[in-house]
Amino acid sequence: MSLDDLDNGILTEAERPDEGARERFDRIYRTLRTRICLLEHPPGERLREEDLAEEFGVSRTPIRRVLVKLEAEGLLRSMHGVGTIVTDIEVEELEQVYQLRVELAELIGKLSPLPPDADKISEFRTLLARCDDLVAHPDAREFARINMDFFHLLNSLTGNEPLREISERLYYQTTRIWLKTASRLSQYKEMLHTEILIFHREVADIVAAVELGDLEVVGHIRRSHISMSFRRLRSESRR
Question: Looking at the predicted structure, is the pLDDT value of residue 121 above 90?
């Protein structure tokens, strides 16, 4: 079993003897969602049920259910006579989504906050160490992966399930816009370096707040960075 297999969600049934239908669905769903957000399945690509069923070693039924869910979340679109296509994204179309993300960010410290224990603090410190390495060795895909892991770690600080679900859905509607926007700009490397430094500062500030157990401060920091991130994206997309 390779690390690539774990990243891609592709394992044989023998390697997952206790996996039930729900777990299998979640694994395939998370794998395809991540691929779309890392632009491994770029906008406009057609996803074929039969190809995915063969790749994941399942029937077309769970694949169809996964594609329906991803379509409901705005990541895919069914086109008559064409099939299921990865949706395109533009900054201007996401403004209202970002506005809602900004407002929800503060709620992490207000709705059923879960005080971080030693293990949770250790997870945040580990992620900060990954950011240190990222600053030294900038890489767009690794930046995107760390950003996703950071989001899920932050989301684990609230016990409010509706807030977690809504925040996750909105996050994945917006997260791939940075890679798409940056990749088509001539100053791509400069932009990547700048964004990594800003992200590192955000993570460092949030880790400090988590270590103090002040989740309201975590929410305020997160709110500010989401707002500023959208403003930078909108500015860059207009160049």
Answer: yes
The DSSP line for 190-222 is HHHHHHHHHHHHHHHHHHHHHHHT-HHHHHHHH
Give whole-number Cα distances, 54 to 13, 18, 57, 145, in Å: 13, 20, 5, 26
Average confidence (pLDDT) over 29-45? 96
Q: What b/e sequence results for 80-118 when a residue is b if at least 16 CB atoms lie within 10 Å of its CB, and e otherwise?
A: eeeebbbbebebeebeebbeebbebbbbbbebebeebee
The number of angstroms, rounded, from the C-alpha of 8 to the middle of its chain's C-alpha atoms is 15
CA atoms within 13 A on the CB side of 219: 21
Please report, as a single letter, which amino acid is at residue 94.
L
Over residues 159-190, the pLDDT tens digits come to 999 999 999 999 999 999 988 887 776 678 88
Strands 46-47 and 83-86: antiparallel
- Residue 47: name the closest of 105, 60, 57 by CA: 60
Residue type, 75: L
Q: Which pair of structure tokens corresponds to residue 93?
A: 């179309």
Locate 117 and state its tokens. Answer: 């224990």
C-alpha dihedral sign at 134, 139, 144, 149:
negative
CB atoms within 10 A of CB 211: 12
Look up the pTM and report it. 0.88
